[in-house]
Each structure stands twice: as C-alpha cells, then as structure tokens.
Amino acid sequence: MVDEALKEVAAKALGESGVDSSDEQSLISLIDAGEHLKLVYYATLLLRDVGTAAAIPCLKKALAYPKQDIKIAALCTIADIAKESESDFYREKLTDGSFREKWAALYSLERYGDASAIGSVGDRLKKLLRKTHRNEWGCNTEIVLATKYLARFSTNPDATVCLSLVSEKWETLKPPEQDALKDIIARSSAKSGDKSA
After folding, report:
1. CB 190 within 8 A of CB 160
2. Most exposed residue of 26, 110, 113, 171, measured as fewest CB within 10 angstroms of its CB?
C-alpha cells in the first residue's frame, strides 16, 4: 500500500515532466526508458493503481535498476497487480542470491504466495533467526512477514517446524516483532501443544 501523500508527490513530479500519471502506457514507457530514476520510482508506485498485466514485463525490467527503492517498489507492484499468478517469481526472487531486496520478496509471498514457497520462506526465516542484527521495516520485518506467510500453512509440517522455531527464539525478537506476532505464535503453539509462547 502506497501512502496517499507519496502518491500525490509522485503524480505532481510526473505531471511536471509531462507524464500522465493515470495512463498506464505512459508510466510503462517511462520505466522502460529508465532515464530519470526518481521518475521511474514514482511510476512504479503509481502503477499499483492503474497497472494491468501489461505492466509486468517493464516492472520485471525495473528489478535490474541500481536503486533499491525502485527494486522494492517494482516487486511489490508486480505482487499487487499479478497477485497469486506470480507466486513462483516471488519465490525465485527470495532465493536469488543476487537479489538483495528480500523484504520485498517476503512481502509479496506473505500477501500472495502459495504453499510452494514454504521451504524457501522457512530457510530464510531460519537464517534471520540466527542473526543478531537485522534490518527493520517498522513492525513488518522480514521475520514478521515470513512468520505470517508460514502461519497461513500451519497444517503443513515444515511450516509448523518453522513456527516452533519462532516460538523458541521469542526472546530474541524485537518488541515490535513480538507485538505483531504474539497472536499468531499463540495459535500455532496451542495447535502443536507447545505452551512456551
């Protein structure tokens, strides 16, 4: 979800550059040209509202641009447009060693991923739980997104094992992570008979 104030800033900047921010093809052309990266970023954000499947190829191209904010916006926009139909692509991005924007891949999987990514998300969660210093995005950290995704498949044994690990590592989670996950972990712990959470 893109903040309304940011959308207004984006639309104004694009309008000042002669780009119709409500026209999908104009936004696609701007992204494809890739000349002004700030405008490319704005175009990727605004495609969430006006984009269709026709925008997916240019958004995938934008994942190769050097700016992290463009990559994150592009993958999240692909997810908001394509939803479940690109689940395999989100999983590929999560496991792609050259794609560093794992948060965006987890965001996409948490919202629209199917069960085929349980192993990949579980592996990422285990890696994150071993780290002592993690990047944070407010309360939607990678740990929160991965745990929410796995909770959707709590009847799957692999997902259950990973949810148990979160419960075991509870004290290492940051307070915003604990707040975001306390109900999910309590439910999964009750299902598995674990009373530690």
Report:
1. no
2. 171
How do the domains of the chain map onto residue ranges?
A: 1-113, 114-197
Separation between Cα atoms, residue 85 and residue 111, nearest integer Å:
12
Q: To the nearest whole percent, how much of the chain has pLDDT over 70?
A: 93
Alpha-carbon span 59 to 82, nearest angstrom: 11
Q: Which residue has the tokens 């997810």?
A: 79
Indicate the CATH number for domain 1-113.
1.25.10.10
SS3 category, 23: coil
For residue 193, give the 3-state DSSP assignment: coil
| Mutual angle of helices 87-95 and 68-82, in 10-degree steps | 150
Two tokens, residue 152 = 């959707």
CA dist 68 and 159 (Å) reads: 30
Long-range own/partner contacts, residues 87-96 (CB < 8 A, 24 or more apart): 87/112, 87/113, 87/114, 87/116, 87/117, 88/116, 89/60, 90/117, 91/116, 91/117, 91/120, 93/63, 94/120, 94/121, 94/124, 95/120
Token couple for 16: 């000042």
What pTM was estimated for this model as a whole? 0.90
Is the Cβ–Cβ distance between 89 and 59 less than 8 Å? no
Does pLDDT of 137 surpass 70?
A: no
